[in-house]
Amino acid sequence: MKTRAIVGLLCLPFACILVGCGPDLPGTVPVTGTVTLDGAPVEGATVNFLSAAGLAASGKTDAAGKFTLKTTVGSQSVEGATLGRHQVAIVKTESDGTAMDDPKKMMEDMANNPAITSDFEVKNLIPAKYNNPTMSQLTADVTEGGANDFPFQLSSK
Q1: Is 53 part of any domain?
Q2: What is the DSSP letter of 134?
């Protein structure tokens, strides 16, 4: 009986250390912006910021084309994006006439039902060049104390 109590007490500090070992959330600042295509607001687009350190922040545009970013590490998320220069990608697609509101669910459905993948066609609702952060030529410099409100004026040409 005493042995179990002693072992339990000896293991307690290690258990506390393990519980505290989760992904560290980076320091962020609030980031907002708008997305327009040929002057019209884009609703339902996903805006992705990718930092040089490989951290991503993302947000979805509303009816006015406005977005607010969140950075996610593991299962935790925090408002905003990390400081520094970010490459930006903006994506809005549909599949078989249905907007992809939940791409994660769609990927899970495709994994569970191979028939979906054989008939799956994606249509870009904004030019595909904006889908890739390294090819979009869109960047944003997130600064401490700056406005950090970024207007992205996309063109279909």
Answers
A1: yes
A2: T
